[in-house]
Amino acid sequence: MNNTLEKSGPGPVAEPHTDVIDAMQLRQLIDEDSRLRVLDVRTGGEFDSGHIPGSYNVPLATLAEHARDLGDLDHPVVLVCKSGARSDQAHSKLLGAGKQRLHVLDGGLDAWLAIGGDVTRGESNTWAMDRQVRLVAGSISLAGILGSVVAPKAKWISGVVATGLTFSALSNTCAMANALGRLPYNKGRGCDIDSVLREMRMES
């Protein structure tokens, strides 16, 4: 299927017919379709550290609780996270809630930055979630290996972490990320879902 965006007469650029769009397509849509809504599903802390201008922040856990409300939104929506994994999960949840005109940014914010896309940066220096997961998983695994020197059974701690990471890759989910996302420094200012929904429904 053709992923290019084409003009369909006067008016905004035609919306793509594919669920996945690239960063160049998103930039063109933002410039030419005032009804488009960009929904960032990273944690509040990650969002505050840098996001696409004009995007709305509804962390994945919050989105899951309000999928039906977001599914009723008439505007076209593009889902964004850091690399695409959390957007894929959000896409499944919103599709299940009946959302139409729904797209995922291929490669997430990383892809947006790669084309030189504008980013609004706040005062937060919160690490991206995948970096946090690598730090915690690596630290626990290292502790298990070092601990096994004096307590051989400690090696199983590393085994549990490895099993969890393998399952995370196969299922495209991450229990550790979900747990870390609930920590205060990751929540940022928090998500006022009612305000976000009200703003997203406003006509431009």
Q: Top keywords for this entry?
A:
2 domains, 11 helices, alpha/beta, disordered N terminus, 5-stranded parallel β-sheet, Oxidized Rhodanese, domain 1, 204 residues
Would you give an account of this structure?
By secondary structure, the chain is α/β, with parallel strands linked by helices. Helices cover 50% and strands 8% of the residues. It has helices at residues 23-32, 44-49, 60-65, 67-71, 85-96, 108-114, 129-147, 155-171, 175-180, 184-187, 193-201; strands at residues 20-21, 37-40, 56-57, 77-80, 102-105. Helix 2 links the parallel strand 2 (37-40) and strand 3. The two termini are 30 Å apart.
Secondary structure: elements and pairs:
Blueprint: E1 20-21, H1 23-32, E2 37-40, H2 44-49, E3 56-57, H3 60-65, H4 67-71, E4 77-80, H5 85-96, E5 102-105, H6 108-114, H7 129-147, H8 155-171, H9 175-180, H10 184-187, H11 193-201
Parallel strand pairs: 1-5, 2-3, 2-4, 4-5
Order of helices and strands: EHEHEHHEHEHHHHHH
CA-to-CA gap between the ends?
Answer: 30 Å
Which strand-content bin applies to the residues?
5-15%
Mean pLDDT score: 85
Tell me, briefly, the overall form. Answer: elongated
How many strands? 5
Strand order of the largest sheet: 1-5-4-2-3
What would you give as the CATH superfamily of the largest domain?
Rhodanese-like domain
